[in-house]
Design goal:
There is one protein chain. The protein is of the alpha/beta class and 435 residues long. A 6-stranded parallel β-sheet has the order 1-11-10-9-12-13, with helices on both faces.
């Protein structure tokens, strides 16, 4: 079920780093057609796709206050308490990320400043289906609210009765979502990107989804709508030594595997003994869990790799750039200094990925497919723009002017030079113009 590779040569690493590969050509065509239809027909297209894909006929695309109130009554007390604790931790961690305004006088008379301004309108996509991701509502809507986004729009598919999962609606209420619409898949992404009579156009779209959703996000981002990040199937990498509990590693593998058949789990270790124990431990726990067939498909492209030395292990880990990185070693805290590329890191034996997925406070919307080389996970900065300002006095421009003139001349941009020259000449002739 799981391949164990010992001491691979560096020439073998690219093959071992491959994620599950999906042929996207057919997906591209379908998504392009859906996006074009939503742009053309708006709400009518959303209703047609809801009937076709979700099996429901919708009179009203927007979720009513009455529906949200009804959903609240259906959420158990235990789940309400769990959502409250998770929301509080997420709020605490993301509130601490708020940027203070920055002002620097770089030279006399030249003052530069920077301040954070929230993105006006953000769209959150939340998948439905067998695993309604109400936790993602918290992960996206709470930072958006803290950032100060004026409009927070959420799209999620309805079931055959035209209802939204109660936990999603309740989490949205707790997190401060302004409006919720019954639309899923690529058509929801298109609606938020271009707007319909009912669904407003947004400036940036966030959230996970299947390959159709991901392709739609990619497509609209080439036009005028920003997205959180490129994304593919979820993944976890575990770095472990002989001190690790094999049951912890096995359950981490399985919790990743149940994200989907394309998910991938990796164990990197210098211990052949630990590696040899893992398949039996996984099989033992797998017998206790539902979704076995799907998890077995995920495990079929998961791997255990035994390295001869720790340096090679960390070179491989950083090149792979995992979405989730668990360090389950005796000196786990020290090893964090070796991490250069990862979405989110889980330190020590009692830090399972599940904690970050739900309630530790960090965000679970993270870069996959090696995008951790260049992307961060969602954080408060994802919902803001940093605008810079500069204020020059006449004296300040006089001091800086010759530098700007010389640089403009050497780039052959003479109008740039002229804009400075005119001001400097007028300032010299009119001593009252000092600001």
């Amino acid at each position: 079920m799981i391949s164990i590779v010992s001491n691979p040569s560096r020439s073998e690493w690219p093959t071992l780093m491959q994620r599950a590969i999906t042929d996207m050509k057919a997906v591209d065509t379908v998504v392009a057609d859906i996006v074009a239809e939503v742009r053309r027909d708006g709400d009518a297209a959303l209703r047609r796709y809801a009937e076709r894909f979700d099996g429901c006929r919708l009179d009203d695309l927007r979720v009513s206050t009455a529906e949200i109130d009804e959903a609240t009554a259906l959420v158990s007390a235990d789940l309400r308490d769990a959502i409250a604790m998770a929301a509080d931790n997420i709020c605490r961690f993301h509130s601490a990320q708020q940027m203070k305004p920055l002002t620097v006088e770089v030279m006399p008379g030249v003052v530069c400043s920077q301040r954070a301004v929230a993105i006006d309108r953000v769209g959150l996509y939340i998948p439905g289906g067998n695993s309604p991701l109400f936790s993602t509502v918290l992960m996206l809507a709470i930072p958006a609210r803290i950032a100060g986004c004026r409009r927070i729009v959420l799209c999620t598919p309805a079931d055959r009765q035209g209802r939204i999962n109660p936990a999603i609606l309740y989490a949205a209420k707790v997190a401060g979502v302004n409006e919720i619409y019954k639309s899923g898949g690529a058509q929801a992404i298109a609606a938020m990107a271009y707007g319909t009579d009912t669904v407003p156009r947004v400036d940036k779209i966030f959230g996970p989804g299947n390959r159709f959703v991901m392709e739609a996000k990619k497509l609209v981002s080439s036009d005028h709508t920003a997205i959180d990040m490129p994304a593919g199937p979820s993944e976890v990498m575990i770095v472990a030594d002989d001190s690790a509990d094999i049951d912890f590693i096995a359950t981490d593998f399985l919790s990743q595997a149940e994200h989907g058949p394309d998910s991938q789990s990796m164990l990197l270790t210098t211990s052949p003994q630990l590696a040899a124990k893992l398949p039996d431990a996984i099989e033992r726990y797998l017998q206790q869990l539902p979704r076995r067939e799907m998890m077995e498909r995920s495990l079929s492209h998961s791997r255990v790799i035994v390295f001869a030395d720790i340096e090679a292990l960390w070179d491989f880990a950083n090149e792979y750039a995992p979405e989730h990185l668990i360090i389950n070693c005796a000196d786990a805290e020290t090893m964090t200094s070796r991490v250069r590329n990862a979405g989110s890191v889980f330190i020590g034996p009692y830090s399972p990925e599940s904690a970050g997925d739900y309630a530790s406070g960090t965000n679970h919307t993270l870069p996959t497919s090696a995008f951790a080389h260049s992307y961060s996970g969602v954080n408060l900065d994802s919902f803001i723009k940093k605008i810079t300002f500069q204020h020059l006095t006449a004296d300040g421009l006089s001091s800086l002017g010759r530098t700007v003139q010389v640089m403009a001349e050497n780039e052959s941009l003479m109008a740039h030079r002229l804009a400075v020259t005119v001001r400097m000449e007028k300032s010299l002739n009119d001593p009252t113009k000092q600001s």
